Amino acid sequence: MAETVPGCSIEYAGKADPDNRTYIVDFSKLATTLPTFQPKWTRAQAPPELYQAYHIAQLQFDDFQAENTSASNNSSTSSMRAD
Q1: pLDDT tens track for 22-36
Q2: At residue 77, what are phi and psi to the nearest 5 degrees?
């Protein structure tokens, strides 16, 4: 993300509790069901796509803060604006 967004810096929550969830996934069913499937996207392609979408939607930093989003007050309401 830092390579995509001008002026971006990544901060890690130093005092946060560790996330002990596991994300081990078994893709054997996918390989069996769709043996010729080849993904078209890589995780490196996601940040530019998201950055462009956020820019088009005119999202700002404050839109992602829980106290400023309608989504935090009403789960059925999206905080993203569409043009």
Answers
A1: 888 898 998 899 999
A2: -105, 130
- Give the C-alpha separation, 51 to 59, whole Å: 10
The DSSP H or E segment spanning 70 is helix 70-73
56-79: pLDDT as tens digits: 999 888 887 766 445 444 444 444
Percent helix / strand / coil, the chain, rounded to 5: 35, 0, 65
- Domain boundaries defined on the chain: 42-73
The pTM score is 0.47
* DSSP 3-state of 37: coil
Q: Could you give the CA distance from residue 66 to residue 72 in angstroms, rounded to a whole number? A: 6
